[in-house]
Amino acid sequence: MLTFIRSAFENLIYLFYPTLCAGCQTMLYGEEKGLCSTCRMQLPHINTGEEQSVLLNKFGGRTQVDYVYAYAYFMKKSIVQRLIHQMKYRGKRDLGLQLGKWCGQELAELKGMPMRADMLIPVPIHSLRRQQRGYNQSEWIAEGLSLSMGIVSRPDVMERTQFISSQTRKNRIERWKNVANVFRVTKPLVVRGQHVIIVDDVLTTGATLEACIVQLREAGAATVGIITIAATR
């Protein structure tokens, strides 16, 4: 009887407050989470091998990156852009967690990825930005990755020391100048000799991630890899 009452109550809540697909806004059913089955199948996944290795070219040998992995391609007016926008600007924590889980599950099934990690480090945001927004979406993604990969997330070992304007409309050189010295490793002893992965939502020019890598290398990290939910071509 209790099970029946609980099920009836959940169905009533769902009737008035349905869970919608973040991609197409249709109702989710059964085991669907975050995205409906159709939208999830339509995600422009970045395959292993050559497509993933091309992402390393964004860093052009300027700093040592051990590997880069992104879950899907980011294009304007695409389903991936809608997902990132809802997570980043509308505070969809569950979506961030789910994307991180899917990404981690896919990585766990891949063979030949040179991945070894002791911790996940979400790209930090400035304290003023956190006050404005109330959250850091990269931490949600790292939480999801942690759940599916069994690697601890450490949002406490890096900080952003300067509050700067949005990078969205800047080119690569402008982005690099904007973020070159805005990150700091707050717990170098935790990082020293460790294999770390930096986690972010989107890889575009790579300037922000590159700035983080420089600081982690200087702190003595043994290897530094990157995982993002999306990447531009």
Overall helicity: 40-55%
Q: Provide the spatial order of strands within the biggest beta sheet.
A: 1-7-6-2-3
Please tell me the CATH architecture of the largest domain by its name.
Answer: 3-Layer(aba) Sandwich
| Total number of distinct structural domains | 2
CATH-defined fold name of the largest domain: Rossmann fold
What would you report as the Rg, rounded to the nearest angstrom?
A: 19 Å
Q: What is the tally of beta strands?
A: 7
Major beta sheet summary: 5 strands, parallel
Q: What class, by secondary structure content?
A: alpha/beta
Alpha-carbon distance between the two ends: 54 Å
Unreliable residue stretches: 12-17
What is the CATH C-level name of the largest domain?
Alpha Beta
- What is the count of DSSP helices, taking H or I runs of 4+ residues? 10
Residue-averaged pLDDT, rounded?
A: 85
Oligomer: single chain
Family: Belongs to the ComF/GntX family.
Protein name: ComF family protein
Pfam families: Pribosyltran (PF00156)
InterPro entries: ComF/GntX_DNA_util-trans, PRTase-like, PRTase_dom
Short structural summary:
Helices cover 42% and strands 16% of the residues. It is of the alpha/beta class.
Primary descriptors:
10 helices; 7 strands; five-stranded parallel β-sheet; two-stranded antiparallel ribbon; Rossmann fold; 233 residues; 42% helix; alpha/beta; 2 domains
List the helices and strands and how they pair.
Blueprint: H1 2-16, H2 37-41, H3 50-54, E1 67-73, H4 79-89, H5 93-109, E2 119-122, H6 127-133, H7 137-149, E3 152-153, E4 158-160, H8 172-179, E5 183-185, H9 188-191, E6 195-203, H10 207-218, E7 223-231
